[in-house]
Amino acid sequence: MDIFSEKTILTVSRLTALLRGVLEENFEQLWVQGEVSNLSYPSSGHCYFTLKDAGAQLRCVMFKGAVKNLKFRLTDGMALIARGRISVYDQRGEYQLICEYMEPAGIGALQTAFVQLKEKLALEGLFAESHKINLPRFPRKIGVITSPTGAAIHDILNVLKRRFASLEVLLYPVRVQGEGSALEIARAIDEMNRIVKVDVLIVGRGGGSLEDLWAFNEEVVARAVYRSKIPIISAVGHETDWSICDFVADLRAPTPSAAAELVIASTEELRGQVEALSHRLRRSIESLLMGYDGRLTGLRRALHDPRTMLGHLAQRMDDLTGRLELGLNVAVSRRRDRFERLQDALHHNDPKGRIDTLRQRISLLSVRAEHSLAQRLEVIRQGFGDNAARLEVLSPLKTLARGYTIATRDRDGTVVTDAGTLTIGEQLLLKLYQGQAHCRVESLETGKT
Amino acid sequence: MATDKFEASLKKLEEIVKHLENGSLSLEDSLKAFEEGVKHAAFCSGRLDDAERRVEILLKQKDGSLKREPFETGEN
Q1: Second label for B74, Cα 20 to 30 Å away, from A263, A387, B31, B36?
Q2: A391 membership: H or E segment, kind and range
Q3: Cβ–Cβ below 8 Å for B73 and A137
């Protein structure tokens, strides 16, 4: 059939089918780059969008099967490189690119997928600190989800061996890369939670390319880690590799070896704690006992030995005796002093002294008296001499010389002038001019002679 | 679970030490507490030491169940 003949009239369907044939035949495998727009992800699971640049647009579709394998989600405005073939959508008369594979232009598809999943999960709260479980302080059983032939398990076991860590290790063998590995890892996490009781889980693998580590960036793994009731340490690749699994895990270790160190660290810290407590326990009881010992010593010192007490008493007595003697001496000497003072005073007022004084005065007075008497006598004597001459005349002696006598009584020497006073036999003394005579009254004649 | 017992013992040890350091106990009670503390310390350090280092691998059986077997690490 000649379609270009004037007599040939084609139906729309026929032409479209013809065009499709031409396009499909000539644009079977090609790469196209453009910017994504008019993006839609309907519930059918297919994906529709337009790739455009400054001058043209290209309708694109990616069917469900290919979308499932896509590691990232398209967004409007994204620069994209798509691989596919050109076909025609008959019903709308549009040609379109049927995409089999796509990746973001500029950065790799995996990188984009990583960033996108990370954003999505972060938004959902899968990385929330509040959801993270603390590592047990005393892990005794650890589960390891990794390849039984990989470097990770050997690194972990080496660390445990080197550090003499006494731990039970249960390995759940999984593939850690390749198709389906992510699902295996996720299932292992779920199963460990369901069946085996371990204190902590290490999920990871040794270093590799981003593609090698990809399983740990899969959403299915992230969700399993989030679900896990057992604390999970994520240890994927090297220090610089960050996986989605790292973000969701309760703890991220830079490497599998580091994960083992982390597990041991808490045990060793615990051991240190027990040792420190033991030390404090001993020290506190020691100081307590020392305190009691000190108190006891003090009390013992306070509680005197009776012998010592006797000694003290004896000493005290000696002391008191000494003081007593001293006091006595003082008292005596004080009294002696007083006595001597009194004696002095007494001496001072001694009547003997006064007597002497008086005696002296008397003798003095006597001398004066004698002297004055002598003087007086002298005066008298002189006077007497004068008067004697004058008395001569009146002297009874003259009278006696003339023969007169003076009779005196022997009894009392009185001069007898009256015979009447005499008695017979009475002795009389007769004084004569010369000498005297003792006489006795023989008779009496009273009256005037 | 052993961990709980260990934690309980460690906690008790901590309490006893604090009590003793407080100095509020009588001599007799102090000695009792010390004795108890020593027991807890021995238990705890014993627990830390006595775990055996065992490495096992879980093998999936045909019926889907898991079986433990010693894991040959390839070390000497």
Answers
A1: A263
A2: helix A351-394
A3: no
Q: In this structure, which amino acid lies at residue A101?
A: Y
Q: A191 — contact with chain B (CB < 8 Å)?
A: yes
Cβ pairs bridging A and B (under 8 Å): 110
For A23-180, strand residue ranges (E) read 30-40, 47-52, 57-62, 79-89, 94-104, 141-146, 168-173
Sheet of A436-440: strands edge to edge? A406-409, A427-431, A436-440
The token pair that represents B47 in the structure block: 């627990």
pLDDT for the residue numbered A191 = 92
Euclidean distance between CA atoms B75 and B68, whole angstroms:
19
Burial class (CB within 10 angstroms; exposed 0-12, middle 13-18, buried 19+) of A223? middle
pLDDT of residue B76: 39
Cα dihedral B58, B59, B64, B67 in deg (nearest 10) = -70
Interface pTM, i.e. ipTM: 0.77
Between helices B2-22 and A256-302, what is the axis angle to 10°?
30
Choose among A244, A254, A141: nearest CA to A201: A141
Buried b (16+ CB within 10 A) or exposed e, B32-66: ebbeebbebbebbbebbeebeeebbbbeeeeeeee
The verdict on a CB contact (< 8 Å) between B47 and A288 is: no
Q: What gap in Å lies between CA A263 and CA A251, rounded to an integer?
A: 11
Chain A partners within 8 Å of B2 (Cβ): 140
Which of B34, B73, B74 shows the shortest C-beta gap to A285?
B34
Residues in chain A, pLDDT under 70: 1, 108, 304, 350-351, 353, 388, 391-396
Residue of B nearest to A280 (CA): B17
Give tens-digit pLDDT for B17-43: 888 888 788 888 888 888 999 999 888
DSSP code per residue over A231-243: -EEEEESSTT---
> Is A384 within 8 Å of chain B by CB?
no
